Amino acid sequence: MQGVSRTLDKLRAYARVLPKARRNRTDLAGYLVRRPALLLATSAYETALMMSSRLPNDLKALASLKASTLIGCPF
């Protein structure tokens, strides 16, 4: 039951942040519509990432930032 509440918390956080994204909000949707295979792969990855509860969200975010820093990604 704890996993369900964590998933709902994550979905609420996404719902709060998404409307605040002003720039390039529709770019990703346009890319994914034109590339269904990419849409499927991205959806599977994001769903698995959201549903996994082995690590705290803070640690996942730090790992993502470290990986992007190591490869020189500005995002």
Describe what you observe in this structure.
This protein has 75 residues and is mostly helical. The chain has one domain (2-71). Helix content is 73%, strand content 0%. It has four helices and no strands. Helix 2 (27-34) crosses helix 3. The model has no long low-confidence stretch (mean pLDDT 77).
- Uncertain runs are none
Number of helices: 4
Q: What is the overall shape? A: globular
Query: How would you state the average pLDDT, rounded?
Result: 77
Structural class: mainly alpha
Strand and helix order: HHHH
- Between the first and last Cα atoms, what is the distance in angstroms? 33 Å
Number of strands: 0
Topology:
Blueprint: H1 2-17, H2 27-34, H3 36-51, H4 57-71
Helix pairs in contact: 2-3
List keywords for this structure.
75 residues, mainly alpha
TL;DR?
By secondary structure, this protein is mainly α.
